[in-house]
Structure formats: C-alpha cells, structure tokens
C-alpha cells in the first residue's frame, strides 16, 4: 500500500450498498458518499431481502447497514456480504444507536469490519464514512504509544509516521503515566491527542490498567483523550472488559495498517469535533 493511501475503496467507480429502514439515513449516507466520490453508485436497501437481491445483482465495494431491519438484522447482511464476496475485502460497517452496547457485549461477529454509534451525530457519521472512502490526514497529532516489544513498536511507529502522525513510544505503563502526569502539570513538551497501547505489557501494569487510570485517576473522558487498545486475545469477555473500562475501540492483531490508521484518524477527528480540549 503506498504511503498516505488509506482508501478502502480503490475503485474510482465503487458500488456501495446502504441498508437502512430509514429513508433519511439512506439519503444522508448516500449524500456523504457522493460528495467524496462523485462516480459512486449508491444502492439503497430498506430490508434484508433487498440487500440480498442487490448482492445477487453484482459485487459491492463497501456496505453500511443498520443493526435492526424489518425482516432481519445487520449481522445477517454482513454474513450475506461475506458469503457473496468470497475472498474479496469488503468493509461492512454497522450504523446503529445501540452499537456501543453491542460492541461492549461483543455481539458483533467476525463478518463486521467496524461500527458507528448514531448517538455521535450526523457530522461524526460523515467523518466516519469519509475515513473509509477518502481519509483525511491529521498532521501533527501526537500519539502516546505503549508497547514493550521494540520490534513491534518500530513497525507500528512507521505505520503511523507514514501518515504524518507524531509518535512518542514508551515501553511500560509506568512511563506513560509519568508523561501524562507531566503534561497535566504543564511540565511537558508533549501534548498527547491519543493513547495507543498493547493490552499485554511487561511489568506489573497492563493495557487495562492504562485505560482505567486514564479514565478514573486522570479523569479524561473518551473525547478528551481517546484510547485504542491492540490485542490478539479473541476472548470476547476480555475484549468486553477493555471497552467497558473506557477504551474507545480495539485494534485486533495481527495489525493491518489501513485499519489501524483509519481507526486512529477517526478518533482524532471525533475528539476535535468536541471543540477545545477540556476535561469531561
């Protein structure tokens, strides 16, 4: 993948399926897609049956779907996409007002690429979809990266720096807390915009401890300081614990650059939409 090219839709004339019982939501998402990709073909579907019919008529390059449909669920849509697409990579995004609770309870399946919570609003939804079709760089944003493997850290650092992100890497949770404390006291040259941490770290503290201390001890909310946790643990209960502790999202290993940077850029854009950085 060339540097800076994070587009999930490589085709200049992609076919995108938007599945939602609400005509307004279908129009909103369609308008965003047409603004970013003038040659896009938007296929609107109100039901699972319509989605299956559209898939039978031709390949799609991206799918957004509501979680609840009149005749089924978005998870059934996601499964149908995977069965139709075969080995092709097709992002499937669930757009729902209940996305966060479903995420925390690990109800999404491996067929779902990502999710968006409608509670974040239409502007955030537009930014989220833009991240998949035409990502916008956030030059100068600073990521505090906690990873105890120097080899893994170097690879991941390069992924982030290729997209104009600044990276401050530390090996231990304790080092991260020292930097965050210095920043909160105005004694640091760094201003951190996001924390990226592995869940398993050497020493007494883990990625879970980082999430909990940032949210409780420092009092930083999810929009004040987003946290992404990298994990290779497929246990849904353990993943749920991370999200319920206050992680904004998870990045599953092995790390895929396009998905990692897309998630980082979205959280950064979302945080900036909240306005000037204040404790919340």
Polypeptide structure, described:
The chain has 280 residues and is of the alpha/beta class. It has two domains: 15-133, Rossmann fold (3-Layer(aba) Sandwich); 142-273, Rossmann fold. Helices cover 41% and strands 19% of the residues. The protein has ten helices and twelve strands. The strands form three sheets. Strands 2-1-3-6-7 form a five-stranded parallel sheet, sandwiched between helices. The longest helix has 17 residues, at 257-273. It is elongated and about 55 Å long. The mean pLDDT is 86. InterPro entries: Bact_response_regulator, CheY-like_superfamily, Sig_transdc_resp-reg_receiver. Residues 15-133, 142-268 form the Response regulatory domain. Keywords: Phosphoprotein. It holds the Pfam family Response_reg. This is Two-component system response regulator.
Strand content: 15-25%
Poorly predicted runs: none
The count of DSSP E runs of length 2 or more, i.e. the number of strands, is 12
- Write down the overall geometry: elongated
Largest sheet: 5 strands, parallel
CATH class of the largest domain: Alpha Beta
The CATH topology annotation of the largest domain reads as Rossmann fold
How far is it from the N-terminal to the C-terminal residue, by CA? 38 Å
Compute the average pLDDT: 86
CATH architecture of the largest domain: 3-Layer(aba) Sandwich
Structural class by helix and strand composition? alpha/beta
Return the string of H and E elements.
Answer: EHEHEEEHEHEHEHEHEHEHEH
Oligomer: single chain
Modified residues (4-aspartylphosphate): 198
InterPro entries: Bact_response_regulator, CheY-like_superfamily, Sig_transdc_resp-reg_receiver
Domain Response regulatory: 15-133, 142-268
Keywords: Phosphoprotein
